[in-house]
Amino acid sequence: MMRTLLLLIPALVLSAQTAPVHKAAATSPAPMTNFKISGNANAAVEIDAYTDYECPHCARFFAEFMPQFSADYIKTGKVKFVHRDFPITQIHPHAQLGARFANAAGELGFYDIVVNQIFKTQDAWSLYGKNTGDIDASVAQVLPPGAMQKVRELVKTDPRLDESVKTDVDMAMNVDHINSTPTIVVVSNGKREPISTIMQMPYSIFKQYLDQKLAGK
Amino acid sequence: MNRIIHQGNLHRWLIAGRLILGVIFVVAAYMKLKAPWIEFAGSLNAFELLPEWALEPVAKTLPWAELALGVALISGVWQRWFSLIASLLLALFFTVMVRSYIVGLKIDCGCFGPGDALGPKTLARDFSMLALAVVVTIGSFRGQNKMRPVIA
Fold this sequence. Notes:
The complex is a heterodimer of chains A (217) and B (152). By secondary structure, chain A is α+β, with helices and mostly antiparallel strands. Chain A is built from 9 helices and 5 strands. The longest helix of chain A has 26 residues, at 2-27. With 152 residues, chain B is mainly alpha-helical. In chain B, helix 1 packs across helix 5 (120-151), helix 2 (37-46) crosses helix 3 and helix 4 (79-102) runs antiparallel to helix 5. Residues 147-152 of chain B have low confidence and may be disordered. Classes of the chains: A alpha+beta (217), B mainly alpha (152). Chain A binds chain B through residues 179-180, 186, 193-202, 204-206, 208-209, and chain B through 35-43, 45-46, 52, 55-56, 107-108, 110, 114-115.
């Protein structure tokens, strides 16, 4: 009995989290981007990261760069971090679907865990691995069944998922002029500085650069 | 008379070659300087040649050196020496690029900023630039030596 009650608690929490979101989905056309933002919203320096879920370098970016960067700058509130979608659909047929799954999960409060899972399991579904396109199976491994069902519904039906991606892609093309992923953009004093060689440098060099920015140099 | 005309043509070709080289160096410098220094540091590190401590100083100074060299080549001051420096610098770049290509590095050359993948096209382009610089250098030294008795 106790076990059943314990199992019910996450389900109740989940339904409490998701109910207003569904209402919002029905009434608001605004892009869903808040879950893509983490760290200190008022920080002087903002880091935007453009990634493509089917790009192998982006998977490396999330596995190798992000854990240390998150511990040093996001969790400490030194920067504002914005994860942006830039699916290069001409060469990556499953990238858009990956973004839809991640953004649907984000709407339910599971963004980070699903983003990491999609990248971590890239070999199982991507063009460079088994090429099954079965992102659903990967995401289902980390979400409770109830949440997974809601994610599936959103992925199938919610047009705002694509609008959210389009907003990021427009930003990449028209503002930051990005042509590869992963690319990060360091925003400080109103200036946006794209860095496309982020995976070609030691973390310590990026840290040196970012510390200079934070010190106002 | 024919010799004078021939020398005049050679002189014009040398000026054209020097100006082309100068503009190439200025453009290469501009493409790097408009991005933050760390972008070029990443390109440099991809060649796996520089120690970590050297990345920041080289990334910050090399584009300015290229700009100064480009301006000097365009202006024509100390033409022989600046064309010699350009030749040596391009020989160094070309050697590094060939070595990286042979060992199979899949990287951007970073020559004109990001998004310039190292491959046969970039190698051919840089070899052409090196050949031009060598021709301008040799021509400058020869031209200078031939001019001396005439002036005297």
